[in-house]
Design a protein that fits this description.
It is a single chain. By secondary structure, the protein is α+β, with helices and mostly antiparallel strands. It contains nine helices and 14 strands. The strands form two sheets. Strands 1, 2, 3, 4, 5, 6, 7, 8, 9, 10, 11 and 12 form a twelve-stranded mixed β-sheet that branches. It has a two-stranded antiparallel ribbon with strand order 13-14. A hairpin with a 5-residue loop joins strand 4 (about 145-155) and strand 5.
Amino acid sequence: MADRKITNGFIDKNDANITEVLDDDKPAVLKDFDGATLEISSNDIQGTDVVNTNILTEVDIVQPRTAIGKNNSSTGSSTNQGFSRDRPGSVIGRASVRSGSSRTSTRPNVVQSDVSARSYYCYKDSHFEKAVNTVKSIIKPDLDGELKSSWLLTEIDHWDFEREKIILLTENSMFVVKYNFINETLYEYRRIMLHIINSIYIGDFQYPNASLMPDRKHGGIQIRWDRGEQLTFGQKWNPWCSDIPWVTLSHHPLIYNRKENETVTYNVDEFFESLVTAISKVFTEKRPGEKLRVVEGPVLIESYASPASLVFNQGGIGFFRDRNGVSF
């Protein structure tokens, strides 16, 4: 199967298209959002690769003025409205050396046993490390810069389907990579230049009020470069559309395994913190004087009634696993 290369949400026909997209540095047009916001400028980063944890703790969680989805009832104090805050193992484990706090909630009362974890091909015999070594060939040093780190997370597309994705973060770009861990094949990837990102939403996932979908009961992040524009009819109603101007990510299911040394790789919080640092540095050169907008509040998934995505997600079909001798 031929690999598909997608840059900034568009499938590249040639390298000339990349330059055309990269030169577009127009100020982002931002939509109003009822929640807490944190604007981070390049001045907040002191020229170091170490994450400034103060950036991530100086956000006031406030009750949205109007609900954007269903079941926006309080799960705690008034400063915690809409956030269940069940923390990944890396946050509460004594062996943790990187995760100091959790910002996105996990599914309550879910534990991934070792037997279940071993059914994931990415979990077998350093498959993830081998996959990263394979797919990092897509990085162009003169365009993307140096590879900083990698994660294995869950992408939720605009039709509410969950799929396993490798995330690469470089000095100037982030990559969302579809990789088949069974036959060790790169299927497709998207390159998103960091300087075009205008906002990052972080919080619990919610469906619209009229949605018939059951509550997700967990959170994640949504990275947007949409400039406040709405999806076209063709984008919204095409489940295979590859130019959606945002990407939604959550923890990988393996984070529910209690082994501490895996929770960093599968933790979307770790990626969020590293991404904020990387974008803020890029803004110094590409968008001086501008600020990255971080919004803490409910993250909307616009799905109303999708039995197909329910079956797909509950069966974990978007993850490469050994299913009692049948692998897909």
